[in-house]
C-alpha cells in the first residue's frame, strides 16, 4: 500500500467508516496516486453516495495533497466503460438537453459526477450550488425526469458541496 493510500485508509477508519457502516455500506481505498483517490463502495449505495461531498471534504482535510476523490462500484475502478458509463452518459445527455437550458436562467448547471450500481451522482454548480431550493429541484424535477427516461436508474445522489456555493440563486436567508 502506498503512503497516500495508507493515510487515506487511516482517515477513513477514523472519520468515515463508522457512519457508512451504520448506514449499511462499506468503503475501501481501491487506488491512490497523484492526489486522486478512488474509493470502492459496497453494500447499500444509499449508505455512501449521499455522503460523497462530505467524505471528500473530510479526506481532503485529513490528508493534504488529495486533489480528487472518486467513488466506484466493485470492478469499476479501472475503466469508465460498461453499464455505469453508459448510464452516466445517458443521464448527461438528458441533463444537457432538458435540464441545463432551464436552470441556466438561475445561473445554474448540473453535471454528472458518475454512476455505479444504478445510482447516478450529480453535482450542482453556479447559482444552484448552495441554493435553498436545490433539494426541491432535484427531487421534484431532475429525479422524476431521469427516472422516466432511464429505467436502469436505481437512485440519484447529490454530491454537491452546497456550503461552498458562492452565489446561490436563492440564498438560505430568502427561505
Annotate the secondary structure layout:
Layout lengths: L2 H20 L2 E9 L2 E8 L1 H4 L3 H11 L5 E5 L10 H21 L4 E9 L2 E8 L7 H16 L5 E4 L17
Parallel strand pairs: 2-3, 5-6
Antiparallel strand pairs: 1-2, 4-5
Helix pairs in contact: 1-3
Largest sheet: 3 strands, mixed
Report the mean per-residue pLDDT as an integer.
83
Secondary-structure content class: alpha/beta
Whole-number radius of gyration? 16 Å
Order of helices and strands: HEEHHEHEEHE
Strand content is: 15-25%
CATH architectural category of the largest domain:
2-Layer Sandwich
Number of distinct beta strands: 6
Number of helices: 5
CATH domain class name of the largest domain: Alpha Beta
CATH homology-level superfamily of the largest domain: Fe-S cluster assembly (FSCA)
What does this protein structure show overall?
The protein is α/β, with parallel strands linked by helices and 175 residues long. The chain has two domains: 3-72, Fe-S cluster assembly (FSCA) (GMP Synthetase, Chain A, domain 3), CATH 3.30.300; 83-174, 2-Layer Sandwich (GMP Synthetase, Chain A, domain 3), CATH 3.30.300.130. It is 41% helix and 25% strand. The chain has helices spanning 3-22, 45-48, 52-62, 83-103, 134-149; strands at 25-33, 36-43, 68-72, 108-116, 119-126, 155-158. A three-stranded mixed sheet has the order 1-2-3.
State the gist of this model.
With 175 residues, the chain is of the alpha/beta class.
